[in-house]
């Protein structure tokens, strides 16, 4: 008789033992599927965190210009970047804030005007969301929106709420900004009003030093106010991981030289969010290997016990001329036939606890975890299940190869 048919009849004849092996396989497959689901969810969460959080790299150098920043920002390592051009400007139709503290003697407005220092601090930016005060919450936008790369050719501005309150400004209003020397005047439209948590200084400061007098405009607008200003105060680049930040350092070094720049990596948010997700993924991978190993050992023990119980059957088959490898193949087919429905049952059962496990391990990182059972996950579980079937029958199969029908039938065991 074909060993496959014998395997089918054997499973039907030993229904209780078949049910036990099926139950064990369902548990193993469910745990394996849960491990793969957790791995996949952790990988998706990590990718989302890399994209949304990433690592902020701040570059400062005397040779850092907008052109150099654009070349660095064009690197495939960089997802977003923001050059910062800082200058002072005058105001038209706008009353800047002034310090309420007395001004020290010997420092008059004429001295500041002689230096070409206006009362407003203008920060030319490409993406204000990358600035540390905005990305880490000390500054927050109350109404309107931030300045983005889409505003590159627009005359727009973000103003601080204290300056807006003093002048009765609201979204859509237009304010005049003059170059420090007064030669140029630009009309800018207010697109955002933000709040700076920094209080006023404890001593008298020039109006341009007051946090309430800081305007954010696109870099091109800042350049129009001061065409001669080429050097940037700094540039912030967002990359996906600390490892990519190291690669970016090498690229910056090629452009600016080894000794001429400062390179700061801010990976606190990345470590707070991404590292725990990576640890969950590694833990899930370890679970998968442990379950596969334990499952193979448990099933090998069960198959070994079954072979011992079926020695008479094996002896009769060997006496009838059946080849030993076919006996091993029969046991492998029996276990594999149980593995297939076990995987299908695991696909149904595993979806019940998986979301709760994922929520417990990954919630609060970068949003609600998305746990979905895919064909790839089922394929992995089925592959490991069949691998366990082979291993679980190969080990006891060594004992089958040593069997002799005469000794089996004579001993009566």
TrEMBL record:
Residues covered by region (Disordered): 96-118
Residue ranges constituting the MacB-like periplasmic core domain according to the UniProt record: 19-254
Presence of the UniProt keyword Metal-binding in the record: no
Compartments, as annotated in UniProt: Cell membrane
Membrane-crossing segments per the record: 20-38, 282-307, 328-349, 381-401
Alphabetical keyword list: Cell membrane, Membrane, Transmembrane, Transmembrane helix
GO molecular function, one term: transmembrane transporter activity
Domain ABC3 transporter permease C-terminal: 286-405
Protein name: ABC transporter permease
UniProt record similarity statement: Belongs to the ABC-4 integral membrane protein family.
Keyword Membrane carried by entry: yes
GO cellular component: plasma membrane
């Amino acid at each position: 008789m074909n060993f496959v048919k014998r395997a089918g009849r054997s499973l039907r004849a030993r229904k209780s033992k078949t049910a036990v092996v099926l139950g064990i396989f369902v548990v193993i497959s469910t745990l394996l599927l849960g491990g793969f689901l957790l791995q996949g969810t952790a990988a998706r969460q990590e990718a989302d965190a890399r994209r949304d959080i990433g690592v902020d790299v701040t570059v400062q150098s005397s040779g850092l210009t907008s052109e150099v920043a654009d070349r660095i920002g064009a690197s495939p390592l960089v997802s977003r970047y923001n050059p910062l051009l800082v200058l002072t400007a005058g105001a038209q139709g706008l009353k800047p804030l002034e310090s309420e503290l007395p001004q020290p003697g010997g420092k008059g407005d004429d001295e500041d005007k002689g230096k070409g220092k206006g009362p407003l601090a203008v920060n030319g930016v490409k993406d204000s969301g990358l600035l540390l005060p905005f990305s880490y919450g000390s500054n927050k936008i109350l109404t309107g929106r931030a300045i983005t790369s889409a505003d590159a050719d627009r005359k727009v501005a973000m103003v601080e709420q204290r300056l807006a309150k003093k002048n009765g400004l609201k979204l859509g209003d237009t304010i005049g900004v003059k170059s420090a020397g007064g030669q140029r005047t630009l009309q800018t439209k207010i697109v955002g009003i933000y709040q700076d948590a920094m209080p006023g200084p404890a001593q008298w400061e020039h109006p341009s030093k007051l946090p309430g007098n800081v305007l954010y405009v696109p870099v091109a607008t800042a350049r129009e106010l001061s065409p001669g200003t080429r050097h940037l105060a700094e540039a912030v680049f967002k990359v996906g991981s600390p490892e990519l930040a190291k690669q970016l350092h090498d690229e910056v070094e090629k452009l600016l030289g080894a000794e001429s720049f400062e390179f700061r990596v801010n990976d606190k948010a990345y470590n707070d969010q991404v590292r725990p997700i990576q640890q969950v993924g590694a833990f899930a991978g370890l679970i998968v290997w442990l379950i596969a190993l334990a499952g193979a050992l448990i099933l090998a023990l069960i198959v070994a016990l079954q072979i011992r119980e079926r020695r008479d059957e094996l002896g009769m088959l060997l006496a009838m001329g059946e080849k030993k490898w076919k006996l091993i193949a029969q046991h492998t087919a029996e276990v594999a036939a149980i593995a297939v429905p076990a995987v299908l049952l695991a696909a149904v059962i595993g979806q019940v606890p998986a979301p709760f496990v994922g929520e417990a391990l990954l919630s609060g990182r970068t949003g609600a975890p998305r746990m979905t059972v895919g064909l790839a996950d089922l394929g992995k579980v089925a592959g490991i299940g069949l691998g366990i079937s082979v291993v679980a029958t190969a080990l006891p199969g060594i004992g089958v190869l040593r069997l002799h029908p005469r000794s089996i039938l004579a001993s009566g065991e």
